[in-house]
Write a structure and sequence with these properties.
single chain; 346 residues; alpha/beta; FAD/NAD(P)-binding domain; Polyamine Oxidase, Chain A, domain 2; 2 domains; 7-stranded mixed beta sheet; 5-stranded parallel beta sheet; 8 helices; binds flavin-adenine dinucleotide
């Protein structure tokens, strides 16, 4: 095996596709029982991870075109709401949602599209990487495969390993032998996980009734529990949905009461509420994710360097220079790392 990629999020899947296209044998090991990582859509097609992309995000648009995905603009018409303690105001217009786009079926379609382009068997699901060993004394027939990657079920040998996992998360879950260089550890464990400390809350309705009242479904709040709210109904408005972000513990009752205060009593009676607390997900966020706030570490040269004679690379969105944090960043990191690995193997 030439390359083991750890993680089947947008970066790991894109990277594997590029490497395989260059004739490099690659396997992707994914701890969850699904691909996508922070691209996660559930019935009836609502996103619990990423929602939007933007027109200038060229790698995202390239993947969308390659996978033949349909897109539509984020609903932006109508007025937004603004909430401060003791007061709710309807503002003129909606500056929040301009120029964002969504993918029909949800952002996970992008991950499924990337995975579908890989040869069968490339992605191994429910395969959690526990340790990576660069020092192992291999038997002669494996002498050119210097890295040993141990999972919950097997051991893989390869020439290179790429960690397509947020650096702080990787260091909290994977044991490296020998120890990683001090400078790398110091930067990796302090690098924030984009949206890793966030709970995303989706409230589902029969229809986006707020639109009939001239409202966009978006809101900014200094009260909470949701600080920012948007319309996430599907393209044809076959159902209505509002979503919001929170960085605190959220109860359904507090969400219903806030939505009623913002959009009227009907908003306080959703058919259902879905909560996804990303801080509780150890394959996304390390313990203490709330304390990681130094976003200047995103795209650090220390995270973009290769280690152990060029055999260890990091390539999640947090390592990107172009749009770090976004899906665009994940794809850009994959592109940059693929170029490095291809050059090194040639
Ligand atoms: C709530 C939320 C909203 C967001 N909104 C947007 C948005 O609107 N637009 C936007 O552009 N971006 C958004 N983002 C960010 C976007 O989702 C990420 O930038 C992108 O998905 C990151 O991809 P990645 O491949 O770098 O990492 P990830 O998606 O985190 O992929 C890492 C993968 O590695 C796996 N893994 C971890 N550890 C191991 C291990 N030890 N062994 C095996 N597998 C492992 C994980 O299960 C995961 O599948 C949002 C994120 C969240 C959480």
């Amino acid at each position: 095996m030439d390359v083991v990629v750890v993680g089947a999020g947008a970066s790991g899947l894109r990277l594997a596709g590029s490497l395989i296209q260059a004739g490099i044998s690659t396997v992707v090991l994914e701890g969850r029982d699904r691909v996508g990582g922070r691209l996660f859509s559930v019935d009836p097609g609502v996103d619990l991870g990423a929602t939007w992309f933007w027109h200038n995000e060229h790698d995202v648009r390239e993947v969308i075109a390659e996978c033949g995905l349909e897109v539509f603009p984020q609903y932006a018409a109508g007025n937004m709401m603004f909430q401060v303690p003791g007061n709710v105001q309807e503002l003129d217009g909606n500056p929040l949602d301009q120029q964002a786009f969504r993918i029909v079926g949800g952002m996970a379609s992008l991950a499924h599209g990337l995975a579908a382009m890989l040869p069968e068997g490339t992605v191994q699901l429910s395969t959690c990487v526990l340790s990576i060993d660069f020092a192992h004394d291999f038997a002669h027939e494996f002498a050119h495969e210097h890295v040993s990657v141990t999972t919950n079920s097997d051991t893989y040998r390869a020439k290179h390993v790429v960690i397509s996992v947020p650096p702080a998360t990787a260091l909290s879950n994977i044991v490296f032998t020998p120890d990683l260089p001090n400078e790398l550890v110091s930067v990796a464990v302090r690098t924030p996980v984009w949206m890793g400390a966030v709970t995303k809350v989706v409230a589902l309705y029969e229809s986006p009734f707020w639109r009939e009242q001239g409202l966009s479904g978006s809101a900014m709040s200094h009260v909470g529990p949701l600080r920012e709210i948007h319309d996430i109904s599907d393209r044809n408005a076959s159902f209505g949905a509002l979503f919001g972000f929170s960085r605190e513990r959220v109860s359904e009752i507090s969400v219903k009461s806030q939505l009623a205060a913002l959009f009227g009593p009907r908003a306080g009676m959703p058919n259902s509420i879905i909560l996804e607390d990303w801080s509780e997900s150890p394959l996304t966020s390390p313990p203490g994710v709330f304390q990681l706030n130094d976003y200047q570490l995103f795209g650090s040269q220390v995270l973009r360097n290769a280690y152990f004679d060029g055999r260890l690379h990091f390539a999640s969105t947090e390592t990107a220079i172009d749009s770090p944090g976004h899906v665009q960043g994940a794809l850009a990191a994959a592109r940059a790392t693929a170029a490095n690995v291809v050059a090194s193997l040639r």
